[in-house]
């Protein structure tokens, strides 16, 4: 009886914090908002945090979702999330960043890329703008090849390959990232147009093609060093990144 009551209490606390996004054959469960105070350049800024989970089962009973969590082995792979600032749902003008996870740059502060800089700088831009959202996409490591493959790509880069050549040598395309789930979450959180923080025209094109309410873009360059100069040049010369 006590266990049943505990489950009932858990559900009553969580039920207002879950949203179902029906994406045809799949279901996306969006949990949030959750208050998340963030240390941003020495200042504490409070964001609203969401995380989402995609399921092929299509279960619309959140109690069943809770019951299955402990056996789902979710820690074996990462889920994506989004940080929201300000009145993102109703504000007239909002910035968004679709940020691909970079284990080495975001966590360790690697100088081989500009990802860590872009993560913090885009958050700063969103706060200064007044409203926006940063989507942190967990299945995008190494432009979609995964962390283990990225480690091998780094070895190739240390032996003369550039980023594109290394990915292609391992059997991948230059960029195999997919934004479908993130776009569905964006649509669930906001209907009004957004400005995308990016240098990547492929990302802008992908979002527009999928029906995301993107009205334009703003660039994000910086943190150039001897360690990432070739990497940044390859972005421009081979991947078509714009200033």
Provide a descriptive summary of the structure in words:
This protein is of the alpha/beta class. The protein has a single domain (2-237), classed as GTP cyclohydrolase II (Rossmann fold), CATH 3.40.50.10990. Helices cover 37% and strands 25% of the residues. The protein has an 8-stranded mixed beta sheet, with helices on both faces. Helix 6 (147-157) crosses helix 7.
SSE map:
Elements lengths: L1 H13 L3 E6 L2 E15 L2 E13 L6 H7 L12 E5 L9 E6 L2 H5 L7 H15 L2 E6 L3 H4 L2 H11 L5 H7 L10 H10 L4 E4 L3 H9 L4 E5 L10 H9 L6
Parallel strand pairs: 5-6, 5-7, 7-8
Antiparallel strand pairs: 1-2, 2-3, 3-4, 4-6
Helix pairs in contact: 6-7
Low-confidence stretches: 1-6
Q: Shape from CA axes?
A: globular
The first-to-last residue Cα distance is: 62 Å
Sheet with the most strands?
Answer: 8 strands, mixed
Number of domains: 1
How many β-strand stretches? 8
Binned, the helix content reads: 25-40%
Rounded mean pLDDT is 82
Sketch the topology as an H/E string, one letter per element: HEEEHEEHHEHHHHEHEH
Estimated radius of gyration: 19 Å
Oligomer: single chain
- Total count of helical runs of at least 4 residues: 10
CATH topology: Rossmann fold
- In CATH, what is the class? Alpha Beta
Major sheet strand order: 1-2-3-4-6-5-7-8
